[in-house]
Fold:
Amino acid sequence: MRRFALIAVPYLWLLFLFLVPFLIVFKISLSDLALAIPPYAPTFKDGIAEMLRQFDFENFVFLTVDDLYWKAYLSSLQIAFFSTLITLMVGYPMAYGMARAPEEWRATLMMLVILPFWTSFLIRVYAWIGILSNDGFLNQLLMWIGLINEPLTILNTNIAVYIGIVYTYLPFMILPIYAALDRLDESLNEAAEDLGCSRMQAFWLVTIPLSKNGIIAGCFLVFIPALGEFVIPSLLGGSGTLMIGKILFEEFFNNRDWPVASAVAVVLLLILIIPIVLFQRNQQRQAEAEQ
Amino acid sequence: MKRLSWFNVTSLTLGFAFLYLPMVLLVIYSFNASKLVTVWAGFSPRWYGELMQNEAFLDAALVTLKVAVASSTLATILGTMAAYVLVRGGRFMGRTLFSGMIYAPLVMPEVITGLSLLLLFIGIGMDRGVLTIVLAHTTFSMCYVSVVVSSRLMTFDRSLEEAALDLGSSPWTAFRLITLPIIAPAVISGWLLAFTLSLDDLVIASFVSGPSSTTLPIKIFSAVRLGVSPEINALSTLMIGIVTIGVIIASLISKRNSLRAQNDAQAAERATG
Structure:
């Protein structure tokens, strides 16, 4: 009896507050827009058969017709992909440096990587507005050095979005790579060098392949949340920045078109399933390898 | 002996500068006397004073704290239960669905979680307010708690629990006296994680909050959309300061605990050897 309650409480909670809401989104994405509150039809009251009869894929067809949506999906994929790549290029050398740092520094370095994660995401994104704006710190610095005469427009462009994503998700990239590099047996590199590899070759042939799992995990941890990101494009991006999280938010709050917003959500999830499944598989392989 | 090359030193220096410079600038310029945020006009704590006068911010901060305490406590209880079920529960009907529902919210985009919960609350005719935010935050943070707690449960020696059961204690007593003290550090860090996630959440709260229940991130977001303001800088500095102090205290405590454990182990070795 007690075991039953132990299982039932969290189970029902998730069923009711995670799975059911999700099915509602799915249902509304198949409904028509109505000028009512809530602004969609049909409702649950009509009975299942009637409800099914009224379902159609109009909203999904609409997503393919209006080029705003598929452009937003493509540009989200592009922004998420390239910012993941840049985060890897910034994060790997840092994780590598941390793994080679003296033992007594490592706890402190680790804390320095984790600390930003505990600080408000919103504030970390906000900090960049003052840096990147036309009269911001970066432009002031560049003009003072004499590199530029006119302030560069960075804020409200896609470049600012890239910077924001790399900055906020960097710890997610560093930690799994550091964990992989930390476990690495240094003598393997020495063996490679003894056998005639240059240090660079040893790095490419030994270190990189052995930290592969960390790299994969880090990339997914950045790519997956970056794809549906809302705060960064809406604070740092401009009107030309198309990201699907922002479109969904606006569709819902500004246009009050719930069925289309729901359809946007369903398609976003379908796109996300591929990287999520790949990520899970990588994690499982890693867990099995450790056992 | 590993050696740090100049390349390692440069990448660490530049990397940490990139991570910390924006926040350092924010903190410095929160003490700026000028209303123009990027022009330095002398030191002044003026914006902190104005912040303390701003009742809208204070109200929002209070709502945020209430929500965070309630949701992280609920999430810790539910998440610990879920972790226990996952690791120790054995087989039961729908176990795959259960573990799927634990892991899915971790990767779900916030806009989708927010949208789906809002549609649920509207569907069942629930007024949006503090309660709906608490329910929403509990749901996603219990999953984080259960991941943290279950990784601790997996590594601990099960024979301790079995010994207690063999010696005649009920499963509940065994859990209370043996399991809970051992997993306590994970439960506490789970609570802290849930608390921070709740304090930090903007997107989900924007969907499920009502007009009377504006949280601090929502307030900050709508102020920030209009541009940089010195008051927000002051508020950010306060928040960064609190988090930094908290993290430093937490790491000192865990360091002291691990030192004590080391000493105990050494003492035990001396006693037996």
